[in-house]
Structure formats: C-alpha cells, structure tokens
Amino acid sequence: MTSKKKEKKPGWKELAEYDLIIGGGTAKDFKTGDWRTKRPVFVPEKCIHCLACWVYCPDAAVIVKEGKVVGFDYEFCKGCGICAHECPVKGKAIMMVSEKEVRDKRPKPEDEKAKK
Ligand code: SF4
Ligand code: SF4
Fold this sequence. Notes:
Blueprint: E1 38-42, H1 52-56, E2 62-65, E3 68-72, H2 82-86, E4 94-98, H3 99-105, H4 109-115
Antiparallel strand pairs: 1-4, 2-3
The structure holds iron/sulfur cluster (SF4) (2 copies).
C-alpha cells in the first residue's frame, strides 16, 4: 500500500472555459480534401450521366454542368469512394486512384527547370 494522499481533482466550477462548442459546422467550413488518401478520377467516355454519383456524394463534390458530370471538386472531396461504388456502369466511369500515385506522376519542379 502507498502512503500518498489521493490528489484532489478540480470540480467543474473550477475548470477553465476551453473547447466550447459555439456552433454547428459543415464540410463547407473545412477543406476535407486535405485529408484524402484516394481521389476519384472521372472517365468521361464511360459515363452515362445517370447522376448517381452526384446523388450519393456526402460532400457535394461531384461537379455537374447542364445535367452532366464534368469532374470533382478536390478541395472538398474526401476520397470516400461512394461515388465509384454507386456508379452503375460496367467497368465504372469513376476510378479511385491513390493520392501518392497522383503525386508521383506530377512533374517535379526540377524537371520543369530542366525543360527551360
Ligand atoms: S470520393 Fe466521396 S467525397 Fe469524393 S466525390 Fe466521391 S463520393 Fe464525393
Ligand atoms: S454514377 Fe457513373 S455513370 Fe452515373 S453520372 Fe456518375 S460517373 Fe456517370
């Protein structure tokens, strides 16, 4: 047995006012694309424009113009893959690609300098 006295914890009245929830928030306030590990890539030639991806996307990140899908808003797409899952087309009109793969294929600044 220890002889230490039990430390007295503060009651709720002594707690500092941190972490107050001062209002609701939506994905519009946060760029959820920052934490995406995969991204949807649109394959326009396979798309039948049924808009299932647009209906199911929880972040309204499927861009539709004049009734047709044209791409994705990568600032808000969180890469959940629901759009690709719901796409009814055989072979899918949306492919989920890893962000690392996308990053690796991007031209690096040193490659751009070498072209000049
Ligand atoms: S991956 Fe998820 S968040 Fe991104 S467009 Fe598809 S359904 Fe929307
Ligand atoms: S669900 Fe597939 S086929 Fe339908 S609009 Fe979206 S990408 Fe096109």
